[in-house]
Amino acid sequence: MAIVKMKKLRFMTVSSQASDLLRELQLLGCVEITEPRTMGEDELPGGLSRCAGADAARLRADHAALISGIKLLDKYAPVKTKILAPLPEAKLSELLDEKNLPAGIRLAEKLIGLDDRIRRLSAQESRERALVESLQPWRDLDMPLDCSGTRTSAAILAVFPASAEMEKIRLALRDATENAELFLVSSDKDLHYTVLVCLRTDMEEAVAGLRPLGYSAISLGDVAGTARENIAAAETRLDEINREKADCAAEIIGEAPGRAALKLRADTLSIMIAKAEAEAKRLCTESVSCFEGWVPEEREAELAEALGKYDCAWETADPDPEEYPEVPVKLKNNRFTRPLNMVTEMYSLPAYDGVDPNPLMAPFFILFYGLMMADMGYGILMIIAGLLVLKKKKPKGGMRTFFELMLVCGIAVLLSGLATGGFFGNSIVAFSEAFLGITAGDMPVWLQKFNDGLLFNPLDDTVFVLFGSMALGFIQIITGMIVGFVQSTKEGKFWDAVMDQGSWWLVFAGLAIGAVTGFWWVAIAGFAALVCTQGRSKPTLIGKVVGGVASLYDITGYFGDVLSYTRIMALMLAGTVIAQVFNTLGAMTGNIAFFFIIFLIGNMLNFGLNLLGCYVHDLRLQCLEYFGKFYKDGGRPFKPVGINTTFYNITE
Asked: Which CATH class is domain 146-219?
């Protein structure tokens, strides 16, 4: 597979047909509209100006309102849906029908208003409950809370720490002044709630005497009347608030039948937003609209047929090399390589003049993932999950790519498990020995072979697995270098490729020959080639020599890259050992029920950890060790104006 060749597109049409033409391009789904050029209004060619199209900002605001309305219905009136249920279907004509949009937006705004009212009521409810909580300790006080005393006497609400004894507090008050009294209203685990009554002339002495014991005057704000009266009034208001909240919630629930219509209108607005954003990128005269963009070369004929229906002029051209950074990238993949789009896009799309990494990466990524997990049971789970979701739910976009990748990797995990003898670790042997009294040696020969692995067992053949992992890594690194060699040759840099990649191949071949036969001259020739060629870009002779000699240090980088592939062995052994540990723990209980409980919990944990861990480490091998040998990244994705929906699958 390859990177799809793109054509630079320019077309102009009469402004009265521009909207219909863009809708046609949306249906076609193969044209990306771009800004004509980065320039200000004063730099535009004579007669051209930026056009005022549909208000994309307003459309986005309406779309956000619809999404909020849908979420509110899901919150207040949730519906049970099957996990694997596919999206409902809608005809394209229904999605393009805009006449019911105002009603949908009004409904969404009504739902948002009701929810805002509920939130305001909830805030008011919190304040009322806080008031009740603050007044509860003073419930038994008959004195109005806003009473501060008389002209000559003062009444102060005060609290003391619960650790302070009331007798000691009263003694301290009597020592401070005889014209004061302290009344205990209530106590809890934190505080004593009291009323201090004293002559105003003695208030300072009373407070000074009580302060060492934790005296703290409190204020209840503008609360008037007794605490009991205020609590009763607050509880009445709480009842009213709860009734109003229930009424608002019931009104939202009553609009639940409109959920499907809101989702349909949200998808309609998504289509309108894409069209409005494309319209905003055009340049206009009084009667003509001008567009620029990109179209895949393979769909140029379809575009010509679509444009031929309108009064427009258009042209396509191959992009110049200096335009390559601006050219959008679309990868052309088959069913085998398409799942790897997830890996490539997570790292970075290739540059337009680069190479599609998916077909070059797919065999290695899938093989390495299979070897890292290497368990028939886990592979079967991955295959079942992938097939069920793809067949039942029919996902789109990234979710579809994820489960396609899970499916192909699951097949690799199953085959690797068959080769290495893993079926949920050693579950068959552990169960048979613990509960059936059948040892591994007493099992049928075919089952012994099944348990031991058709090719090798990672626990018994650790050295083989170690060197096999490094050998696979060396093969992938050499493959990356070959791809880099071919790319350089296509760019007219054949001799650079010979000096950069060829010299290292000579070194690797020489080291292998020397290790086997003791003949080291081939390796010496390779090192000499590196010294003579790797400093060629330096301007001075000394710089060339120093650069060439310094390049010899790069051999440690290659050794490090090869050693990095030992993570294949590490993950294979780790997954196998963890599964066996849980199987052994389950067997030690001597109870079949406990065995299966421990077996399920342990293997599910191991499966989950390996599912993510193997992906991360496999991704690292591809992106760092492999891509570093040939990959030119920095491409931007091809984003054609099209019909993209969230809540419905489109039927014709």
From this structure: alpha beta
